[in-house]
Design brief:
268 residues, two-stranded antiparallel ribbon, 2 strands
């Protein structure tokens, strides 16, 4: 329900902003914890006959997230370690008669890439020159675009964007999100944040970031919908009223974090 979404935003936004600017390490730890919880929800969407233990999968995700918390370690090292862990578990499961062990290892490796690789970039954004402003810039752009798409889709949506994946999403809502999010990221956020000490990059970087995020980040939502459709599940969990689980809330963040990190690293 709409009021539940508003309530979650009113509680969550000040908490995220407060941690970002006054306790960055706390934000990184909270984000790592949220990624682990979301990955556990993703585990629930696996095929019913999957046998890779939940603890083994979560350990691999944790190993893939941890290097982002310590800059001297390369993030790729965690993903490589998680891959070896899952392959070892798959070998043992196959030897014990589980013919779908390679499939389970694939699900696990994809989860480590999503939550440890893509999700870890949200922590990595803190270490870029804009610091916490980079994280807030990326996340708030997604929030603005999502909100615009939601309300425009309800008001004017006629043409479905992805009928099988998400029947309620429309092209009208999508383009409204692209327009609103790009205007916000390219002009409003740099203008407003500059009055609080943010040194905005060139206009081309700002507008490019907005267009990149608003065009491609919605695919994260559709990707999660694909897993839920296959699992015949409406929500990934029940942590957030009006949203479902943390995976439901963070699906676009994963894509936005990686896209924003790549774009800002390229230009800053």
């Amino acid at each position: 329900m709409l009021w539940q979404r508003v309530l979650v935003a009113l509680v969550g936004l000040p908490l995220i902003v407060g941690l970002l600017f006054w306790w960055p390490w706390g934000f990184a730890l909270a984000l790592a914890g949220a990624l682990l919880i979301a990955s556990g929800e993703y585990y629930r969407l696996w095929p019913a006959d999957a046998r890779l233990p939940r603890a083994v999968f979560l350990l691999g995700v944790a190993v893939s997230v941890l290097p982002w918390l310590w800059p001297r370690y390369a993030p790729a090292a965690g993903l490589l370690a998680a891959t070896l862990l899952y392959l070892t578990a798959a070998l043992l499961a196959y030897e014990q008669g589980h013919d779908h062990a390679p499939r389970d290892a694939g699900y696990a490796a994809l989860g480590a890439l999503m939550f440890g690789g893509l999700g870890g970039t949200l922590v990595g954004l803190q270490r870029l020159p804009p610091g916490p402003w980079a994280v807030l810039w990326v996340l708030s752009t997604v929030w603005v675009a999502d909100s615009a798409a939601y309300f425009a889709g309800r008001a004017w949506g006629r043409h479905r964007l992805a009928p099988r994946l998400s029947p309620k999403k429309t092209w009208e809502g999508y383009f409204a999100g692209v327009l609103a999010g790009t205007l916000y990221a390219g002009w409003l956020f740099p203008w407003a944040a500059a009055r609080w000490g943010f040194a905005p990059p060139g206009a081309g970087v700002a507008w490019g970031l907005g267009l990149l995020l608003t065009t491609l980040a919605p695919l994260g939502d559709l990707a999660e919908s694909m897993f839920k459709r296959v699992a015949h599940s409406k929500d990934s969990g029940h942590w957030l009223p009006g949203h479902g689980g943390l995976f439901d809330r963070m699906d676009s963040w994963l894509w936005a974090g990686a896209l924003g990190y790549a774009w800002l690293t390229l230009w800053l």
